[in-house]
Amino acid sequence: MKVIRIKAFLIDFLVLLLALTIINLIIPKSDYLNMLEIEQNSIMEDYMSGRISFDSYVSNYGNLYYEGMLEQQLNYSLYFIFMLMYFVIIPFIYKGRTLGCYLCHVQIERFDQGKLYMWQLLVRYSIVFGISYIFLSNVLLLILPSKYYFSVVSILAIFQFVLSFFSAATVIFRKEKRGLHELLSNTEITKIIEVKKRSEKKWKKKIMKKKTQVKSY
């Protein structure tokens, strides 16, 4: 099951890369963005060589990063919409399956086998693939001034990395093989065959109950 989960994860990851590539092809980098990236590299070189202080690096690099994010806001907004559709809306409608789950014959279920809700999928994939991080990065771009934006987003990025790393570690080392993303969202990945068997058992139990009720009359 662990190998199947890794395969499903890799397929979904490749789908995300493909989507990001297509979005960047549709909306290519502007000359202004290329200029900003050159200036960012120059500032980083100055800091690494000791020509500027850390405060100057954070201030100058942060301003350029903020301008670059503004320039790419449409790209990241489309990327967020795609992630929301792919990881939340489609699995909610289509029995807890992304493309990776479908190809690997598994699906996402509630751990207690109840109804799967959108917020559970959102929590799950916010930890695994950073949906909430992408959303917050876009929202904070409209709220925070440039001098604070880079620092706040950097802290969020570190927090996102720690969450993802810890979630992967819990899958590896916990006996139940459930990651942090599954514990917090109360979900699990199950083989479709097992789900069918479980539904068949429930269906047989219902039939047996009806038969016993008829006999009692």
Distance between the termini: 47 Å
Strand content: under 5%
Structural class: mainly alpha
Count of β-strands: 2
- The H-and-E topology, N to C, reads as HHHHHEHHHHEH
Unreliable parts: none
Q: If strands are numbered along the chain, what order do they take across the biggest sheet?
A: 1-2
Total count of domains: 1
Q: How would you characterize the largest beta sheet? A: 2 strands, antiparallel
Q: C-alpha Rg, in Å?
A: 23 Å
Average pLDDT figure: 86
Outline type? elongated
Helix fraction? over 70%
Number of helices: 10
Structure characterization notes:
The chain is mostly helical. It has one domain (2-216). The protein contains ten helices and two strands, in the order H-H-H-H-H-E-H-H-H-H-E-H. The chain has helices at residues 2-26, 31-48, 54-71, 73-93, 99-103, 118-129, 131-143, 146-173, 180-185, 192-216; strands at residues 106-110, 187-191. A two-stranded antiparallel ribbon has the order 1-2. Helix 3 packs across helix 8 (146-173), helix 4 (73-93) runs antiparallel to helix 7 and helix 7 (131-143) runs antiparallel to helix 8. The chain starts with a helix and ends with a helix. The mean pLDDT is 86.
